[in-house]
Amino acid sequence: MKTHDNAVVYGTEDILISLCNSVSKVLTVATQSEIHYSGMVQRITKTCLKPDIGCFVLFDGGFSGLVVINFSAAAAMELYESYMLSMGMSREELASSHTSDEVSNVMGELMNQIVGNFTCKVGQELQTHITQNQPKMLVLNKQVMLSVDTNLDSPEARRVTFYTGRNNIFYLELAIDGTEFIKLYDFDPEEDADPDELIAQANAKVATNQSAASEHDDLLDSLGM
Q1: What is the pLDDT of residue 143?
Q2: How many CB atoms lie within 10 A of CB 153?
Q3: Residues 40, 46, 52, 54: is their CA dihedral positive or negative?
Q4: What residue spans of 59-184 are helical by DSSP H?
Q5: CA-to-CA distance for 142 and 131, rounded, in angstroms?
Q6: DSSP character for 147?
Q7: In whole numbers, what is the pLDDT of the chain averaged over residues?
Q8: Between helices 12-31 and 195-208, what is the axis angle to 10°?
Q9: Distance (Å, rounded) from C-alpha 170 to C-alpha 37?
Q10: CA distances (Å), 145 to each of 33, 51, 203, 204, 217, in order?
Q11: Is the peptide bond before 221 cis (omega within 30 degrees of 0)?
Q12: Domain boundaries, the chain
């Protein structure tokens, strides 16, 4: 955070750091392996869904924006396998390809927990409220790049590189309206949402998710794909 006229100012990079911390924290707990991100951030002009698995979440409220995570097949399979094995699944029961609906369902639920952790922190740290839609996962062919547009008045976009425990790479992209939060008075933020609780909630959802395939088809139809 930076200061301006003795007031604490919380800007785009601070929001991005909070989001990145949610990604690394939730995925580290879920996979029981260290997930970390680069100390450098890239300014980009637009956000895109890219191969092999792209996921996006829209949020609105105190500020509007879009979160995109693009996984390589290797990164997605590592996270999926580590998560499922940590839940007690045997390796023989796991999906063998990143194109499996099961992999998309699991990655989508993990994304849901990440953004849930982030929206909780927004309420604690910025004392405002944002809502999210259900994360959408797309398994993409290497020849397909889908741009996701949002109705932002003064958009700012950033890309951050993440590394899995086995050094597979995935990318997070954030697009939000240019904004600053200025602290008017001192307050004590509440404690962060416990990622262990978020993962426990996710376990039941992953096991009982029967509608993901039809939702996936509906999304493709709505995107004209």
Answers
A1: 43
A2: 8
A3: positive
A4: 73-86, 101-126
A5: 32
A6: E
A7: 83
A8: 60
A9: 9
A10: 30, 8, 31, 33, 18
A11: no
A12: 2-222
Three-class SS state of 155: strand
**Which pTM was predicted?**
0.79
CA dist., res. 141 & res. 108, Å (int):
18
- Going from the C-alpha of 141 to that of each of 47, 72, 76, 127, 217, the distances in angstroms are 17, 11, 15, 41, 16
Helices and strands per DSSP (H, E), number in the chain = 5, 12
Which of 35-44, 134-143, 215-224: highest mean pLDDT? 35-44
- Residue 124: phi and psi, rounded to 5, are -75, -45
3-state SS assignment for residue 96: coil
Distance CA(217)–CA(219), nearest Å, equals: 5
Amino acid at residue number 26: V
Residues sharing a CB contact under 8 Å with residue 153, sequence separation 6 or more, in sequence order: 177
- Which fold would CATH assign to domain 2-222? Chemotaxis protein chec (3.40.1550)
Convert the pLDDT of each residue in 197-223 to its tens digit: 655 655 555 555 545 455 555 655 666
Spatial distance between the Cα atoms of 17 and 10, rounded to a whole number of angstroms: 11
- Alpha-carbon distance of 158 to 169, in angstroms, equals 16
CA separation for the pair 158, 172 (Å, rounded): 8
Q: What is the DSSP letter of 126?
A: H
Beta bridge partners of 41: 160
Closest CA to 179 of 123, 126, 120: 126
Closest CA to 153 of 59, 65, 62, 61: 65
Contact between 57 and 108 (Cβ < 8 Å) = no
